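task queued by scheduler; priority normal; single chain, no ligands, no partner chains; default sampling; output format set to structure tokens
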Amino acid sequence: MTDEFYRWRPHPWHGIDVGPNPPEIVHAYIEITSSDLVKYEVDKTTGYLRVDRPHRTSSLPPTLYGFIPKTYCNENVRKLMGSKAKKGDHDPLDICVISEHLIQRAEVLLNARVVGGLPMLDGDEADDKIIAVLENDRVWSEIRDISELPIHMIERLRHYFETYKVLPGEVSNVSVGDPYGFEHAAEVITASIKDYQIKYA
């Protein structure tokens, strides 16, 4: 038990710590669940969830999806993508969290154990997707690297991000590279924390 509390609700991006042991264990603020037919996104001014758009296709996110607080994707994150990216996407760092049980409620905060990620280019912007497992999950919590996850799970995530913005007949502006393991994911998280400190310190 603790006597500490916030008198008012903190902003989920700016008012919550990165996590208890970053870059290994981070906080994840969940915006979308795997049953959501609408894409929600945190409103950067108020911190409340805002309806961004209905999903354009029948594809749903295979995992919980949100962001890591007090991270920002700018020049340090872009550098890790190399010459393919012209800039970061100027958003908090996205995270996908795998859980044994179906969590159907968004706007929750959880501890996530980072295992890897997917390098994604949205146009010319670096838009990495960190992949993690729910800490203390009975099935997944022993996973330490993306190489230990079933390949079909990574393929589902990759397919979702390659197609979630595009309608049949359109050309996708998104490209997703080969998955990377914990070591590189730790570099991306560290870079995003540095970008946040430069922007908001």
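post-processing summary
- The longest strand covers residues 109-118.
- The radius of gyration is 16 Å.
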